[in-house]
Amino acid sequence: MARVALENVSKLYPGNVKAVDKLTLEVRDGEFVVLVGPSGCGKSTILRMIAGLEDVTSGTVTIGQRVVNDVQPKDRDIAMVFQNYALYPHMTVRQNMAFALKLRKVGKEETESRIRATADMLGLSELLDRLPKALSGGQRQRVAVGRAIVRQPAAFLFDEPLSNLDAKLRVQMRLELARLHNRLGTTMIYVTHDQAEAMTLGDRIVVMDDGVVRQIAAPTELYDSPADLFVAGFIGVPQMNFFAGTIEASATGVCFRADAGFELPVSAEMAGRLTAYAGKPVTLGLRPEHIGVSESEQRGSGLRIPAVVDVVEAMGSESYIHLHTGNTSFVSRVDAHRRFEPGQECLQAVFVEKAHFFDTATERRIE
Amino acid sequence: MSSKQAKRAEIGKHTLVVLVLLFAFIPLLITFVISFKSNQQFAVAPLTPTFPLHFENWAIGWETISGYIANSIVISVLAVVLTLVPALLSAFVFARFRFPGKTVLWYALLGLLFMPGIMNLVPLFTLLRDLNMLNSMLALSTLYAVGGQVFCVFVLRNFIEDMPQDLFEAAQVDGASPLQQIWSLVIPMSGSILGTLAILRFLASWNSFVMPLVMLSSQYKQVIPVGLMRLDGEYIKLWGPMMASFSIAAIPLVIIFLFTMRLFVKGLTAGAVKG
């Protein structure tokens, strides 16, 4: 097991295309860190630099106590699971798992016992003599993970390993990976564009955009206190609602005046911080579950946004109500048993204490 | 289409195929028929079977050309090995590595594809003479190997590039050196294309006539195409033994083809559909 650290790591592709810009990240020994972000944000590049499959343009990559910038992938003591599984098609499951051990000249008995143990752990014992083409997607994925586990590496790298699976299998495999991490306790670095995977698997999540880290935090912290508009919009399904507006400070107090036409009194806690933004453009962020929640939760705010229902998405246990007020659209997450009809006019209650404010100019959250 | 029409179309197709096959096989059949004739029988009925059958023609033929066949096998097998090993290594480098001047080198290599081989005959002869390597079977194999490089590198590079890059990266992380990647991934996965190239190169070396005629002066080192020509006497043609020799000369190729037919067809269509 080992810590993995990146210090001021940048990656420049030919033509001065910056894939990663001065990234600093420390993954602690035994930690499960998830890199998440939209396609092309540089998260896979980071993983490939840790693996040694891409050169680092500047900065240092450390695995354990060793700077590995110039170390070959095979000597970095890491194992990687690829998006397309990358199973050797002409080798059986057993041979796939034994390949790395054979190259490392691990004895036959030791190899066989490791394969047996891993196959038992992953439910692959019956499949050891099959070729990859005779396996289902989920089984192939398990073999790919098994091939990494038998290596007993210092760290595991996962490059969107579940993205080729169907939704049900993905949830199942997600659970298995979480169990696996609990069991092995090995350092794991996981790349995905699926924020649900990131939230459920990661001890900490690194949110990236355009080669830059936007925030590194634990899942709940990321959800409750997003550092900026990007993180706030990226984490959470449905995504956070944003309302453009300005801060108005008067003798009676501080309030947010939305361009959409409503006014939101600011909690006493936030008022002090927002006074400095009086007259400046500010963006209000509200999670869908903080709009239109049950009456008992609308403590004291007294705010109701007058809105018209556009679409109702029934999810079973809850419903997403898509509404608009003026030209601004937003979503509310409510109990599935509350009835809404398209075209219906309603007043949506807001959980004011949960409101986030962002400086529109810098996009940073006002704390 | 009614079943009657379909049947008629089937008959038409089959007739066409049979005609083409007849056209291709009749010369071989005639060669075979003549191989059992004496010169007198040949003069009377050149194309139809005659009796008695002169089996001794085959014995004479075998005695005459068995040495040439052995030489051809040695030279062709050696040429195949000498072609494919460096071609595979070069193709892997072109497919998997980034290095300065790669594109220029690649186009330079491709340019050689368009150079007619016969143009090299005189310079190669001079070169071998200066190296004191004329009349050497190894030198002839090397010439075949060099001649086959460009085409093989071209085909293999494209094939390796079409292989999923993740596989190579997984192997790299697993600890495989480039040579181990070639041995453990490329060779097992490109069996059909390597087999096809091996057959094509074997045939090219086996059938080559001008090169051995020029480069090999000793009759004991000579290969089958040149040897067969020598059977064609200046004053007397012994048709029976000559045709028996031709038939014997074809046997190794027929055997190779029978054993590798499926591989060969698979290789020819490789890359047509991405698997």
UniProtKB/TrEMBL annotation, chain A:
InterPro entries the record matches: AAA+_ATPase (IPR003593), ABC_transporter-like_ATP-bd (IPR003439), ABC_transporter-like_CS (IPR017871), ABC_transpr_MalK-like (IPR015855), ABC_transpr_MalK/UgpC-like (IPR047641), Mo/tungstate-bd_C_term_dom (IPR008995), NA-bd_OB-fold (IPR012340), OB_MalK-like (IPR040582)
Segments forming domain ABC transporter: 4-235
Alphabetized Gene3D superfamilies for the sequence: 2.40.50.100, Nucleic acid-binding proteins (2.40.50.140), P-loop containing nucleotide triphosphate hydrolases (3.40.50.300)
GO MF annotation list: ABC-type transporter activity; ATP binding; ATP hydrolysis activity
GO cellular component, one term: ATP-binding cassette (ABC) transporter complex, substrate-binding subunit-containing
Cited Pfam families: ABC_tran, OB_MalK
Keyword Nucleotide-binding carried by entry: yes
GO biological process: carbohydrate transport
Membrane spanning residue stretches: none
Keywords, ordered alphabetically: ATP-binding, Nucleotide-binding, Transport
PANTHER family recorded: MALTODEXTRIN IMPORT ATP-BINDING PROTEIN MSMX, OSMOPROTECTIVE COMPOUNDS UPTAKE ATP-BINDING PROTEIN GGTA
Full protein name: ABC transporter domain-containing protein
Automatic annotation (TrEMBL), chain B:
Domain ABC transmembrane type-1: 69-260
One GO CC term, this protein: plasma membrane
TM spans (from-to): 16-36, 68-92, 104-125, 137-160, 181-204, 238-259
Natural source organism: marine sediment metagenome
Cell compartment(s), UniProt: Cell membrane
Family annotation (PANTHER family): ABC TRANSPORTER PERMEASE PROTEIN MG189-RELATED, ABC TRANSPORTER PERMEASE PROTEIN MG189-RELATED-RELATED
Record's bilayer topology term: Multi-pass membrane protein
Name listed for the protein in its UniProt record: ABC transmembrane type-1 domain-containing protein
Native organism taxonomy: unclassified sequences, metagenomes, ecological metagenomes
The keyword Cell cycle appears for this protein: no
